[in-house]
Amino acid sequence: MAANGPARERRETRRVDGFGEAPAYVGVVERRPRQPPVPVVLAPGAVELAGPLFGTRDVGPFDADLTRQHPGEPLGERITVSGRVLDGRGRPVRGQLVELWQANAAGRYAHRLDDRRAPLDPNFTGTGRCLTDDSGRYRFTTIRPGAYPWASHPHAWRPAHLHFSLFGTAFTQRLVTQMYFPNDPLLPYDAIRNALPDPDARRRLVAVYDPDLNEPELSLGYHWDIVLDGPAATWTAPASVPAQGGR
Amino acid sequence: MPLAPTPSQTIGPYFAMALPFPGGADLAPAGHPDAVTLHGYVLDGPGAPVPDALLEFWQAAPDGSPAGAAAGPRRDGDAFTGFARVSTGEDGHYALRTLLPGGAPYLALCLFARGLPHHLFTRVYVRPPGDDPLLAALPAERRATLLAAHDAARPRSYRFDVRLQGDEHHAETVFLHFGGAP
Ligand SMILES: [Fe+3]
Predict the structure, then answer these.
(1) Which of A11, A41, A235, B81 is most buried, judging by how many CB atoms fall within 10 Å of its CB?
(2) Which of B17, B134, B181 lies at the smallest CB-CB distance from A127?
(3) Which residues pair with A228 in a beta bridge?
(4) Distances from the Cα of B9 to the Cα of A194, A195, B12, B46, B81, angstroms
(5) Which pTM does this prediction carry?
(6) Which residues are registered as beta bridge partners of A208?
(7) How far apart are CA A77 and CA A82, in angstroms?
(8) Cα–Cα distance, A132 to A184 (Å, whole number)
(9) A84 Cβ under 8 Å from any chain B Cβ
């Protein structure tokens, strides 16, 4: 990590009642806005109710299979991760870009800032992308990432996780989040996931083991659906909520 | 009954290996005579540059239409995309090339950074906003944080700094909430 990494992040957590020794991530104190966000009601046709378009040329043939991006086979347990991207009404989000990044099986990122004592894998980069299909489905083949230590509190290790980036049909639906694996003993101790005060919200970040997604003798399948928030293109605001100034 | 949304989680420090792509800072077609530069710094509360922020911009085309060309990581560079993705350098600086939007006088901005549990939305007004309802509702010192600075001596350049946190001397950039949970 860079010099301002772990030392600064040590100050980013606070204890939350009901989580024992597990703190909750509150971010870098100096970077957090002090003012609440200003509510805006978007009129039909507002810029934020549309979003960027992506096409098949944006995704290459090996982008969704992270195990085939190098000449050799990566180390680790092969997994298939798939699910649907939906809006709040359950409608599929079609043809949108899904991006993924992750640590290797030893829990190390192929990034210059990750210099901890764990091996890099010359056959694994850990980045992927795909487009959702007509039913909103995405699918990645990769390896299960390892846990890694994170200096937010003594003995803190991040549970295995995949970083996801998603676009909806509206710019307001933009989402960056993390997917976790079921029954990971590190989950209750994870400051990042514990940043969510709602236990149901925390649960929604955990995939389900799904043998129907297994590729025989090759990979274990995990199912994870993603629901995008925010006003979708057809969302209409209640007329009684005016745009307000800085509270 | 609406489905419960998938919650946001921090982007962390390692997004740089996956998200930025070549040409991501170019919304304007290569060599377009009307292209302008929009640039600035992302700063934290004490005024230190934020070197690990990711900024995404979305805007209308010059004719006011919302549609752009395919905007993704393998864009061809000769059509207006409406979408930019750019990360800050070690000095907290970002820059992009675009065409001024028609219709709505602003670029929508979604900002991610290590240390932010959730991304932040704001707007960059690059043309006189007229009677824009959002700006009209803000006190003057906060309104100014959404207006890109334009120096007549450099007509092709616009400057917009993001201050993640204000203090007694500096106004905090206005961030926006579009409905749903903040
Ligand atoms: Fe991570």
Answers:
(1) B81
(2) B17
(3) A87
(4) 10, 8, 9, 25, 27
(5) 0.91
(6) A223
(7) 16
(8) 28
(9) no
Is residue A231 within 8 A of residue B125, CB to CB? The reply is no
- Provide the pLDDT confidence category of residue A163 given band limits of 50, 70 and 90: very high
- Taking CB atoms and an 8 Å limit, are B18 and A195 in contact across chains? no
Other CB atoms within a 10 A radius of the CB of residue A14 amount to: 11
CATH number listed for the domain at residues A52-227: 2.60.130.10
- For chain A, the C-alpha Rg in angstroms (whole number) is 20
CA A201 to chain centre: 13
Q: Which residue has the tokens 């039913």?
A: A135
What is the fold, at CATH topology level, of the domain defined by B15-163?
Answer: Protocatechuate 3,4-Dioxygenase, subunit A (2.60.130)
Interface predicted TM-score of the whole assembly (ipTM), two decimals: 0.95
Q: Would the CB atoms of B72 and A54 count as touching at under 8 Å?
A: yes
Query: What are the sequence ranges of the domains in chain A?
Result: 52-227
Which sequence positions of A are flagged as catalytic?
A: 109, 148, 158, 161, 163
Of B12, B18, B172, the CB nearest to A35: B172
Domain ranges (residues) in chain B? 15-163
Distance (Å) from the alpha carbon of A139 to chain B's nearest alpha carbon: 17
Residue A27: the pLDDT is 87
